[in-house]
Amino acid sequence: MAYTTKIDLPPLVREQLVRLLQQRLNDAIDLAAQLKHAHWNVKGPQFFQLHQVFDSVHDEVEGAVDGLAKRIAALGGVADGRLKTAVKGSSLAEYPMAAKGGAAHLDAVSAGLSRFGEGLRQDIDVACHLGDAGTSHLFAQLSRESDQLLWLIEAHLCDIGCTEARS
């Protein structure tokens, strides 16, 4: 571990937790960048509304970035927020450069949010198994928040072509 802390978790456990948190931090940084890409490049009749929505969702994801980084530091680790680290370590799909219209950007953003939420849900149980309720609760909180953001994005997709049962 990079820093000494009096947190009562063994150093090896904290190292595992820091690796887990760093993976989600990589994803969150990538997701934030994808949202800015969508914000800057969306075109079409829903431009203004989606431009604002993507910026708003970006701000929420930046909050997740900050929370993950602070938890890493609290555990005695170093939160690696460098872009090269995030790009190399992200589990999110690459954002499609061909996306132009609102539906294409909404679909790409929803895929990123979905993958981010999936990773968070997997990590809830791992952190709990490692004996760190604090990190587990952080993952659960961020999971709920990302699910809400996904709902917000998918509600806009519904306007474009909603069906009763969307998977």
Report helical residue fraction: over 70%
Spans where pLDDT lies below 50 across 5 or more residues: none
Q: Under the CATH scheme, which architecture would be assigned?
A: Up-down Bundle
- Dominant shape: elongated
Mean pLDDT metric: 94
| Rg from Cα | 17 Å
Task: Explain how this protein is built.
By secondary structure, the protein is mostly helical. It has a single domain, classed as Ferritin, CATH 1.20.1260.10. The protein has five helices and no strands. It has helices spanning 11-41, 47-74, 83-89, 102-129, 133-161. Helix 1 runs antiparallel to helix 2, helix 2 (47-74) packs antiparallel against helix 5 (133-161) and helix 4 (102-129) packs antiparallel against helix 5 (133-161). The longest helix is centred in the N-terminal third of the chain and has 31 residues, at 11-41. The protein starts with 10 loop residues before the first helix and ends in a 6-residue tail after the last helix. 35% of the residues are buried. The model has no long low-confidence stretch (mean pLDDT 94).
Task: For this entry, give a set of tags.
74% helix; mainly alpha; Ferritin; 167 residues; elongated; single chain
What are the SSEs and their pairings?
Blueprint: H1 11-41, H2 47-74, H3 83-89, H4 102-129, H5 133-161
Helix pairs in contact: 1-2, 1-3, 1-4, 2-5, 4-5
